[in-house]
Amino acid sequence: QVQLVESGGGLVQPGGSLRLSCAASGFTFSIYPMGWYRQAPGKQRELVAQISSGGSRIDYADSVKGRFTISRDNTQNTVYLQMNSLKSEDTAVYYCNKRPPNAWGQGTQVTVSS
Questions:
Q1: Could you say which of 68, 99, 101, 103 is the most buried, measured as most Cβ atoms within 10 Å of its Cβ?
Q2: How confident is residue 100, by pLDDT bands cut at 50, 70 and 90?
Q3: What is the pLDDT of residue 14?
Q4: What's 32-83 look like in SS3?
Q5: DSSP letter at 87?
Q6: Cβ-contact 49, 57 below 8 angstroms
Q7: Cα 17 from Cα 32, distance rounded (Å)
């Protein structure tokens, strides 16, 4: 009954911004670390960012450092990914993740194109 529902994806021009949201239910959200992953066509799924249960520890992939910000609101059971200065290389399906055990949302498509 764990559910993760991503939203906020879409088409954006290079240099633009999007904010992704992941609404979580079916578990005690506030005690679990959360992460955002992405998968581009022909590529393996990769970790984009992760955040500890209380939000004090945050890690980013080198490719997004300085451009993306992960955050969470434990009162709303939601984790966010603010994406700025988007590049075409950021085009992918973005997934919300919880572990342990692993749980995934359905993904939301982000397309960066002019």
A1: 68
A2: confident
A3: 98
A4: CCEEEEEECCCCCCEEEEEECCCCCCEEECCCCCCCEEEEEECCCCEEEEEE
A5: -
A6: no
A7: 27
Residue carrying structure tokens 């970790």 = 47
Residues 56 and 19: their CA atoms lie apart, in Å, by 20
- Which of 14, 13, 18 is CA-nearest to residue 108? 18
Cβ atoms of 14 and 114 closer than 8 Å: yes
Residues shown for the chain: 114
Residue 50 tokens, joined: 């992760």
Task: Note the pLDDT tens digit of each residue in 44-97.
Answer: 999 999 999 999 999 999 999 999 999 999 999 999 999 999 999 999 999 999
Q: DSSP letter at 89?
A: G
Expressed in angstroms, the distance from the first to the final Cα of the chain is 40
Q: Are 12 and 114 in contact (CB under 8 A)?
A: no
Pairing of strands 68-73, 58-60: unpaired
For residue 103, give both structure tokens.
């749980």
